[in-house]
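Quick one:
INPUT:
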């Protein structure tokens, strides 16, 4: 099952939809915390601060959207309040591990330089994904005439991708080669995540 088939099923079930929003919120929060953790306390730039602030806002905004579905159902990021909890948590951390491994091996990076390069590549791959995922979700929301909307996130994610490309260009003349590798790693993890979502959606329609 592809995401464009999974999402209408999620949206049709208020409780499941609340858990989905909570899961996206968790993933945005994980991304935001990773950006903040990779910041150099001295050389952090305007763009990095802006990016971290916006990712934190996405986490909060998605959490707030739960009010429009099944209010009060997902107070925390506990597994019971998430969809495909293991995969949703594993996705970003695993991408980080794989990208760091690649950077150590191919570019011999370590310490601060490794942290910054990993921030660039991991975030780039995630922004490519976000630019695909949120519009598919918004279409499904529009089709279902849902009160939930993620248009403000879509707008900011488009800006992020551009900002990541600009930062990558300054980082390396071979940035496209490295970025391609990161995108390929992300695609594998994303496939697994979608598979886990599909399993859970199929399971919940049997229950109901
Ligand atoms: Fe985001
Ligand atoms: Fe973003």
């Amino acid at each position: 099952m592809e995401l464009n088939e999974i999402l209408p099923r999620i949206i049709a079930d208020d409780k499941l939809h609340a858990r989905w929003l909570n899961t996206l919120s968790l993933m945005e929060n994980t991304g935001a915390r990773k950006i903040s953790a990779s910041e150099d306390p001295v050389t952090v730039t305007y763009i990095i601060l802006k990016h971290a602030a916006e990712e934190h806002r996405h986490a909060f905004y998605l959490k707030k959207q739960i009010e429009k579905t099944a209010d009060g159902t997902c107070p925390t990021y506990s597994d019971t309040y998430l969809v495909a909890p293991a995969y949703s948590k594993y996705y970003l951390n695993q991408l980080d591990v794989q990208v760091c491994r690649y950077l150590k091996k191919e570019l011999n990076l370590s310490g601060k330089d490794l942290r910054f390069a990993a921030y660039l590549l991991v975030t780039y791959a995630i922004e490519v994904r976000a630019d695909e995922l949120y519009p598919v979700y918004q279409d499904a929301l529009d089709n279902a005439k849902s009160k939930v909307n993620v248009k403000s996130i879509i707008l900011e994610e488009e800006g992020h991708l551009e900002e990541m490309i600009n930062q990558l260009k300054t980082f390396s003349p071979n940035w496209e080669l490295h970025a391609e590798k990161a995108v390929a790693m992300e695609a594998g993890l994303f496939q697994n995540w979608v598979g886990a979502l599909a399993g859970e959606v199929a399971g919940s329609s049997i229950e109901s």
